[in-house]
Amino acid sequence: MQHGKGFWLFVAIALFVMAIYNLMPFFWMISSSFKTDIEVTSYPATLLPQAFTTDAYARIWAQEGFVLYFLNSIKVSGGTAILSATVGVFAAYGFSRFRFQGRTALMATLLVTQMLPGVLLVGPYFKMLSLVDLYDTHLGLILAQTSITLPFTVWMLKGYIDTIPVEIDQAAMIDGATRLQSLVHCVFPNILPGLVATTVFSFLLAWGDLLWALCLITTPEKQTMTLGITNLVGQFRVLWSDIMAATVIGCAIPAFFYLLLQRYLITGVAGAAVKG
Amino acid sequence: MIGERWTAYWFVLPGTFLLLAILGFPAIASIVDSFGSVGSGGFGSAYLALLSDQRFLTASFNTALFVVCVVTLHIILGLAVALLLNADIPFKWFFRVVALLPWTVPDVIGGLIFRFMLDPLSGGVNAIAFRLQLMQGPYDWLGDPGWAMFSVIMAETWRGYPYPMLILLAGLQAIPKEQYEAAAIDGAGRWAIFTNVTLPNLMPMVLIAVVLDAIWQCRLFGMIFGMTNGGPGDATQNLSLFVYRQYFQFFETTYAASAAVVLAAVLLAVAIPYIRSTLREKS
């Protein structure tokens, strides 16, 4: 239908307002991270740094723990993403290609587990990890994060595999391929974008977590990014420029990945919600 | 196919066993633990104790208030932005990225940014209010129970709305073009098209967005932990924070487990219609 000039003016203003609203907190965070420690503690606050400085970043970088938190987060989130994608792709293939006894029940269970609150699991999980000597280890944290990412990984990947025609598998198997070979050679290349999107999504979910790291990690050197930043605030003197510099780094990785994958997000995340 | 009967299980079982160990087992342990006795009480006494615990009731009320407000605002904002992004706008890619950005922020970091913006002395909100001469001196927004709740709701509204927006945008894109064309031929105005074509087609997606967003918001932990840590007093403490405190600060494991089971039961009740419809579509 035809839209008049007034309509487009309205749309332009609305988009502009949306952009301001969405970007304001980012502006505040980035602007504050470049202020001197005198300016950042003064009232009333300035909106732009008067004396532009990267001291806060230098201090964060020099604090040895901080680089370590960053690497820990990459290790834990990466481990979670790889573990859930590897196990998940097989399960997704099984659910997509086979009709077996207990299939519906298992799929229903997978959906239900996505609805469970983390605080229901974290207590007994803490006890379990202590029993097997995995408390306060990255492996324990990776396994914990996988309990969140694996169910939705399976559902998302199953959605992608469902779109690949079964005939492709069958043709391969007539040519003598096994199920495993047809998965690796026929299905795999076709769902690669979806697999990457799902893996990155797990990575980001683990990256943003605080609850599990808070409950399962005690050694300072093993803290993840979010936990390290949170504990930075807990200390007696809050220097906001340092914390904002740290949060800029903490936000940069997820923002980068989301923007890279924004094309897949609408069909991926929303698609998973829609199609199950 | 011959010999295929067991193949399926080879694919599905590793994931199933892993989930059983890391998810099923702790969940069942929690449920069993929750029915243990508290103090001199017997079987299930933790649940009775919850009913008369003012802090639990406050946390439940806070959770309900928070979720209702946040989800409502998310759907309104999300629908508005989804409609904007669905139009044939220039620089669509750019605006889509901007629309998505708040959601990329880890929730605890979002909480910290808002905590700093609302800082009584060096926060941006007080600075703007001072410049516009709305206030004489600094005000401690997060130290005031009412404003603290309002602020937490505003912060999560900002951070979380791109998620329902994405679901609604996917829904908008799935509406057949023919329906719009037919309505336009019939001479329907813009508002009539919105209420008669867009909204009815979008309704199932709105419901999905409401359910999934409500589940996320019921479980929210990091945002509130980073922003107010449940304070001042218990003013912004939700059920997730309540359980965390009971478990890791007061070591009341049975009590914590029973509160967590209540939260889980509410979440499942909210989710059941969604789970059923998803499974029906799939099979």
Characterization of the model:
The complex is a heterodimer of chains A (276) and B (283). The radius of gyration of chain A is 23 Å and the shape is globular. With 276 residues, chain A is mostly helical. Chain A has helices at residues 5-33, 55-62, 64-97, 103-115, 118-131, 138-162, 166-174, 179-208, 211-216, 225-234, 240-275. The model of chain A has no long low-confidence stretch (mean pLDDT 86). Chain A is built from eleven helices and no strands. Chain A has one domain (60-275): Orthogonal Bundle (MetI-like fold), CATH 1.10.3720.10. Chain B is mostly helical and 283 residues long. Chain B has a single domain, classed as MetI-like (MetI-like fold). The longest helix of chain B has 33 residues, at 54-86. At the A-B interface, helix 1, helix 3, helix 4, helix 5 and helix 6 of A face helix 1, helix 3, helix 4, helix 5 and helix 6 of B.
Question: What attributes characterize this protein structure?
Answer:
heterodimer; A: 276 residues; 11 helices; globular; B: MetI-like fold; 74% helix; 0% strand
Fold blueprint:
The complex is a heterodimer of chains A (276) and B (283).
Chain A: H1 5-33, H2 55-62, H3 64-97, H4 103-115, H5 118-131, H6 138-162, H7 166-174, H8 179-208, H9 211-216, H10 225-234, H11 240-275
Chain B: H1 7-34, H2 45-51, H3 54-86, H4 92-100, H5 107-117, H6 124-131, H7 145-160, H8 162-173, H9 177-185, H10 190-219, H11 222-227, H12 239-248, H13 253-282
Helix pairs in contact in B: 1-13, 2-13, 3-7, 3-8, 3-10, 5-7, 8-10, 10-13, 12-13
